Amino acid sequence: MRSALYVPGDQPGKLAKALSRGADALIVDLEDAVPVPGKDAARAVVADWLRTLQAPAGPEIWVRVNPGNRADLRAVALPGVAGVCVAKTERAADLAFVDRELAEAPWIKVCPLLESGAAVLAAAEIARAPRVVRLQLGEADLCADLGVEPGPDERELLWARSQVVLASAAAWIEAPLGPVSTDFRDLDRLRASTLALKRLGFRGRACIHPAQVAVVNDVFTPAADELARARAIVERFEAADAGVVLDESGRMLDEAVVRQARRLLEAQP
């Protein structure tokens, strides 16, 4: 999943257009994007829209649900839904509740949003909870909780981002989904910050505007020369009978290098 586009659950017009925006996944939002008085109506709109979806040929469909909300979970437990993003997850016990509520929908995966200091500190535990396939940082709420004001290079968030990457790797789940950028007009800055996330170990990013999708997809799509080198590394390593294996430049190929090459090939869209 290179890109995941958030779509407000209370706006049928945007839902209708979202499937053609080029994102690898849609996150239909029943939480922050929907005012409290409109949540029941939005839930009904989203459930009706989900029932109209055909066989999955486009983006994966995820739904961001309100924390601890039984009605949300039951409304979206439908065959066309790949998973739920659980807002404001604080601990693994929050996800045990989700697992129980979705007992009759075993195909539904979970992506917890970590939006507080407590959640980030519990990332390793949360990553091992039932159904969890990846983590996501909710940095607006996290910054408010911590009293952090990120500068241009966002170094203030480096530790939290690295913690989520480490927790994901330790739990053998997919690399985390990068946080949204609320400045959807500055696409150059978006590219720079997305490249920084990629270097940290993120392999995709959430978007709040369709204009962001192409940039995020481009950053997380391997270039042709990267793929060619990765294939050459794997082929050379697998063809070797024994002893030290060298690449075309005479550098040693060990298992770690080959594992990185395989990961790159497996991640291509």
Percent of sequence in beta strands: 5-15%
Percent of residues in helices: 40-55%
The biggest beta sheet is recorded as: 7 strands, parallel
Second-tier CATH architecture of the largest domain:
Alpha-Beta Barrel
User: Could you name the ranges where pLDDT drops below 50 across 5 or more consecutive residues?
Assistant: none
Tally of helical segments = 12
Instruction: Specify the CATH class of the largest domain.
Output: Alpha Beta
CATH topology of the largest domain: TIM Barrel
Sketch the topology as an H/E string, one letter per element: EHEHEHEHEHHEHHHEHHH
Question: What best-fitting shape do the alpha-carbon axes yield?
Answer: globular
Structural class estimated from helices and strands:
alpha/beta
Distance between the termini: 8 Å
Q: Average the pLDDT over all residues and give the rounded result.
A: 91
Radius of gyration from CA coordinates: 20 Å
> Looking at this structure, what is the CATH superfamily of the largest domain?
Phosphoenolpyruvate-binding domains
- Which strands sit side by side, in order, in the main sheet? 6-5-4-3-2-1-7
Task: Please tell me about this protein's structure.
It is a single chain. The protein is an alpha/beta fold. The chain folds into two domains: 3-219, Alpha-Beta Barrel (TIM Barrel), CATH 3.20.20.60; 224-267, no CATH class. The chain is built from twelve helices and seven strands. The protein has helices at 12-18, 39-52, 70-76, 92-101, 117-121, 123-127, 139-146, 158-170, 187-200, 210-219, 224-239, 255-267, and strands at 3-8, 25-29, 60-65, 83-89, 109-114, 136-137, 205-207. Strands 6-5-4-3-2-1-7 form a seven-stranded parallel β-sheet. Helix 1 (12-18) links the parallel strand 1 and strand 2 (25-29). Helix 2 packs parallel to helix 3, helix 9 (187-200) crosses helix 10 and helix 11 crosses helix 12 (255-267). The chain is globular.
